[in-house]
Amino acid sequence: MPDQRELATSAALALPRFVGSTALFHAAVAERMAVTPTELHCLHLLHGGVSDSPTELARLLGMSTGAFTRLLDRMEQHRLAERAPDPADRRRLVVRPLPDRMAELAELYAPMARFVGERLARLDRRQLTALVGFLTDGTAAAEQASGNLPDVTQAITG
Amino acid sequence: MPDQRELATSAALALPRFVGSTALFHAAVAERMAVTPTELHCLHLLHGGVSDSPTELARLLGMSTGAFTRLLDRMEQHRLAERAPDPADRRRLVVRPLPDRMAELAELYAPMARFVGERLARLDRRQLTALVGFLTDGTAAAEQASGNLPDVTQAITG
DNA sequence: GGCAGCCACTGCGCAAGGCAGTGACTGTTT
DNA sequence: AAACAGTCACTGCCTTGCGCAGTGGCTGCC
User: Fold this and answer.
1) Which residues on B lie below 8 Å from A23 (Cβ)?
2) What's the CA gap between A154 and A64, in Å, rounded?
């Protein structure tokens, strides 16, 4: 039976592999939908209700606003999202996800969703709390670490 | 205090955000090193000892062997890796990571590495076991799911 | 009413990657 | 041994996603 230290090492090694394989899975789903991984990523942000502002979405996706305009063009073509005017500010617009291809998306994600559901159901409260804490704090840490690296958000803030 | 079901939902929501922010962090590190995210991903595979075969690495990176040749060219230029002949088969070659820029890499990863270390140290054995199991099984599930995605009716892209 | 600043958008150029084909090399078969 | 099919990394050609810098429209503040 492995001790605490070995387990921590295993986790530290398993983490990047998990992220890598997950990214590959996303790329595979995107290809199946004849869509780029970036479009899919954006779609997730939209459906998650994270933001509907082009500038904000561009920042979250790590790209320039100019590139995001083209991304939006493609997403409209592919019926993933649509532009709507912002009544409060006529410079801005609001990005809205379209339900059109949601069934398709859900079908592709079904195997992974099932896996996650089953796996999480096997954990007790203490384990779940640890997992959630690790993920949420890790998200914050990654975002902060990204921000502290110079020259990263140059295209957007400049 | 949240019950089991709420915690599972939180985890399911936190998961994609964690993966997304981690991917952005990787992209930021890559940009800081004047390198593409793909090069960095490949470098991780090399240092992790996952494989040293170009064909296998191309598969793991989700790209063609032709593109991997160019990737290798760049990685040699950037002093991230080098080609070496495979004595057993003269068609093949072996990709070896270079130690040249490891200090730079370690420095950029230091904040995240510290976070992971501290966070994992706070977990008990049961929590660690759950985390490792989730990550390793998730990796396998993602790889398998990438391999056989269900067929989906193609939408018309106008 | 003028002005600085922000918004999404556009022309241009670059570079990463797919595709299909090439030459070198392998193990196998007759 | 000689021909064969299969595999390996590599190469030209092309597509495309994105950054950069600039544009016009709009806002809020003097």
Assistant:
1) 19, 23
2) 9
pLDDT, one tens digit per residue, over B92-108 is: 999 999 999 999 999 99
The mean pLDDT of chain B is 91
**Cβ B9 to strand D below 7 Å:** no
How confident is the model at residue B4, as a pLDDT? 84
Asked whether A157 and A65 are in contact (CB, 8 A), the reply is: no
β-sheet bridge partners, residue B32: none
pLDDT surpassing 60 at residue A158: no
Strand C nucleotides where any atom sits below 7 Å of a protein CB = 5-11, 15-21, 23-27
Q: Does residue A129 carry a pLDDT above 50? A: yes
H or E element that contains B85: strand B81-85
Q: What is the DSSP string of B22-42?
A: HHHHHHHHHHHTT--HHHHHH
Mean pLDDT score across all residues of chain A: 90
State whether the beta carbon of A63 lies below 7 angstroms from any atom of strand C: no
With a cut of 90, say whether residue B118 has pLDDT above it.
yes
- Total residues belonging to chain A: 158
Taking the CA of residue B90 and the nearest CA in chain A, the distance in Å comes to 31
The whole-number average pLDDT for the span B141-149 is 86
> Residue A127 in contact with residue B127, Cβ under 8 Å?
yes
Of B27, B32, B155, the CB nearest to A62: B27
Strand C proximal to A126 Cβ, under 7 A? no
Here the tokens at position B94 are: 């072996």
Strand D nucleotides with an atom less than 7 Å from a protein beta carbon: 6-12, 16-22, 24-28
